[in-house]
Protein 1
Amino acid sequence: TFFEKIRAACDRVGAALIVDEVQTGMGRTGKLFAYQHSDVSPDILSSAKSLGCGFPIGAMLCKEWISEHLIAGTHGSTYGGNPLGTAVAGKALELINTPGLLSNVTERGRQLTQGLNQLNAKHQLFKTVRGQGLLIGAVLKDEYAGRSGELVKLTMQMGLMTLVAGPNVHRFAPPLIIAESEINDALQRLDQAYAAFNKQP
């Protein structure tokens, strides 16, 4: 895989492999961290945002061969080391890193992806639907390039909050605890939004 090739390249030249799990970590992809979907182990991992479930905290995890160089004063973080923040992060890890929650992310992600593919068969808006767990992007076809923001506005009008990932990707990152019925409701609203999009000039 690409990730394995990057790991091999880092090992070849003695470089550290750093993964940014600020958005993909804390269960978002169905594993505690996204890198765990592979057999590759990073040397440094960054985490924030969902690490504190809304409370400001950032963290860097690293292997011992790196940490032995981090003496006092060589590494700092705006949101690192706060006692309240670390307590919140500890509780977040305890609640998120459970088989029930992580399997819900995987199952609901599969449901949402399947539903988006079915909607795409009907509305013909996307080249592909990609992602893992509950971090999903629907890539617009070339003829609709640059219009992902319009989809976000239309879904908002239908009472559904979605995101963009650049001008060509309609992005979905629902709560990790979302229920099957809520995904079904979201897909109905998306159906209406996509129909409205197709009616526009």
Protein 2
Amino acid sequence: MNVLIIEDEFHTSERLSHLIQSYDSSIQILQKLSSVSESIKWLSSHKSPDLIFQDIELSDGNCFDIYQSVEVKVPIVFTTAFSEYALKAFQLNSIDYIVKPYDATDIKRVLDKYSSMKAAFAPLDQGMLKDMLMEKTPTVKNRFLVRIGDQYKTVAVEEISFIRYEEGVNFIYLFNNEKYPIDNSLTELESQLNQSLFFRINRKYIININAIKKIDNWFNSRIKLELAPNPNDDIIISRERMKNFKKWLDT
């Protein structure tokens, strides 16, 4: 079986690939794509895979932007931060899904289903998918609950300067230099934050617009940022996010 993964978070994509091949080492991962533009280009120029694992929200758009440009008739498993309740309707169209954070049990469930029902999978109903996603947009959060040892603390989103992925863990950095680990993935956090205030600049960072101190042109038509507080890291806007980043700044 040949599988295509479309997921914009590098570590999530790598983990998904590992879980799939742990289920069956004979499964071939054809490619791991991270954006709408990459996916359209790949699907337009390659033979269709047997199965697609598809993140809904990508760095440069969402998944139905892909399928409005390219006709895809293979079954799709959506990987998403939406709740199971919100996505039950996907099953009506023979589309399955796994809710982040997922594990080996979830992968086994969808691959077992694919093996037993692959002949019955229907082509993607784009209109149905788009309508459901518009109705089930995640609620924007005003605060997050973080753990400090044996205690808990609430952090208002206005206090957050940036969120950074560090060695397998996401950390919230506050304007007052405090730092707290948080269990949510960057993709989940991106969907839970006010998009006029926060932006996912690359696979490692989500930043608050009020944290930007300086914007410089960088190599290969990219942009480098200086943030407050200083994360002691090169904050580079990835090329695929550049257009949306400039649009975000100008909103």
Protein 3
Amino acid sequence: MISYKYKSPNYNNRVKNSKIEFIIIHYTGVDMQFHKVINWFLDERSRVSCHFLIDKSGEIYNLVDVSKRAWHAGKSFWNNCVDINSNSIGIELHNAGNEDFTSHQLKSLVKLIKKLMQDNAIQSWNILGHSDVSIGRKIDPGIKFPWHHLAKEKIGFFSNLSQENFDMDNSDNNSPQTIKEIQSKLMRIGYDVNKSGVFDMQTVEGLKAFQRHWRPVKVSGMLDVSTKQILTEVHKKLSEYRAAN
């Protein structure tokens, strides 16, 4: 059940000819009562909004019509798309950022995502976190968000390697060519990095964003053996998926 009780004034029209391709998952990231969170999204001075907000009981609130451009992603990028707000639906989960998501929230989230995917022909691989599309700027929905739970519901993909006990402190000595290959894989997945062959801060932030999604047990930005193996698997699976669709 979706409640239409509240409506945010913080939206505008999507860019002409834009297509809804992505669903971006956020957490609210503040330790405050739900009514205060709602009031923040309803306050035009906040300049932020989302299409849907899910409280800890699993109640879903539609704050901005899906046909409109909610202001949830800010400066962001994914797979050459630079106006994520015009091409996405934003879902916020009431969560301070340092706590587990409730089973009620996750159940409602899965149902909502599946409906939105069906209604808007959104591909499963395009269910992303704010941290994926805003590397170095945002970290939500955070390391406690259970991407593996969504994958079990056939929403996206989660590597089995992510659950294995690798020596994550074992950082390889990486040549410029190896770094270029890693950067190329991150770029092809969708991350905002450059193929420079230099292990620069943008690459570090790209790796951190990747780890938050696919190796949340340790987010270091280091190019260790575990990260390389998971990155290779995710890149391979995504390439196969895109080729088939």
